[in-house]
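Is this the right way to post structure tokens for a design question? Let me know if I should format differently. Anyway, here goes:
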């Protein structure tokens, strides 16, 4: 029995996973690979280590989720995907036990799509800022009247907060996920200094904005840094919530006193930071 266990672990170690480092790989393909190899690894554990596990579907699903997390980590996927892999199959098992109507499944898929849209392409999940974070970003606004842009503004809560605090400034938010955009757009109605636009912020110029806020993901930061350098002007600043720009020293870092220990990274465009 001990030898069987050892042989199983050696087989798991030798299994033909793709190399680490998910850069350039299709995110949907990486997620599929993680789930498929999670099933294979869970199957090996059942066959060689815990043959009675299939009698407990939820426990088996939890083992598959843990294996999928291991594979996802080995593939070099972003950390925010690991919890999704961990709960995906267990959640499906739990929901399946509720014997819900069949029509709820496509409805749930449509709602998720409307909220998160093409996260597989953008690699930017939906992040919402809390009250203390909104206060901290507002304090970074220039004293003079200015234009402010929020890239991927989500439900628009940050922009509404700043628009109320600084009626002398003009605020613009861009969101590509239909449901958050709709909520932000409706909530902005009647606010003369706030505009919510639907679309891809990569296609929107950063020129003319004194402050640009971004709460994206590590995957988007290198490309954003290039866009900032090419389009933002002298005196303007990028405020990146939580995610620093790789290989670049921020002009300032603001520690937010919230439960997530949020850090705001403030950058000047590289071409103008010495002016």
């Amino acid at each position: 029995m001990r030898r069987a266990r050892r042989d199983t672990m050696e087989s798991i170690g030798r299994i033909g996973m793709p190399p680490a480092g998910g850069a350039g790989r299709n995110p949907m393909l990486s997620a599929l690979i993680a789930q498929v190899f999670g099933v294979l690894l869970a199957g090996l554990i059942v066959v060689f280590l815990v043959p009675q596990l299939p009698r407990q579907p939820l426990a088996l699903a939890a083992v598959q989720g843990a294996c999928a997390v291991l594979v996802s980590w080995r593939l070099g996927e972003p950390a925010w995907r690991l919890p999704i892999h961990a709960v995906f199959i267990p959640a499906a098992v739990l929901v399946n036990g509720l014997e819900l109507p069949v029509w709820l499944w496509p409805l749930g898929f449509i709602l998720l799509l409307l909220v998160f849209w093409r996260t597989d392409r953008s690699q930017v999940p939906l992040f919402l800022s809390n009250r203390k974070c909104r206060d901290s970003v507002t304090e970074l606004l220039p004293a003079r009247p200015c234009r402010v842009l929020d890239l991927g503004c989500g439900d628009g809560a940050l922009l509404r907060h700043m628009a109320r605090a600084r009626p002398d400034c003009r605020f613009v938010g861009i969101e590509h996920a239909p449901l958050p955009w709709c909520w932000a757009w409706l909530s902005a109605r009647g606010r003369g200094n706030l505009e919510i636009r639907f679309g891809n912020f990569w296609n929107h110029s950063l020129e003319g904005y004194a402050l640009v806020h971004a709460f994206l993901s590590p995957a988007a930061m290198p490309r954003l840094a290039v866009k900032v350098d090419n389009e933002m002007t002298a005196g303007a600043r990028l405020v990146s919530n939580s995610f620093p720009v790789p290989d670049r020293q921020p002009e300032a870092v603001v520690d937010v006193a919230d439960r997530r220990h949020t850090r705001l990274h403030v950058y000047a465009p590289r071409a103008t930071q010495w002016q």
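Format looks fine. Someone answered above. Worth noting: The CA atoms of residues 234 and 272 lie 5 Å apart. The beta strands are 147-151, 170-175, 194-198, 211-214, 237-241, 252-255, 263-267.
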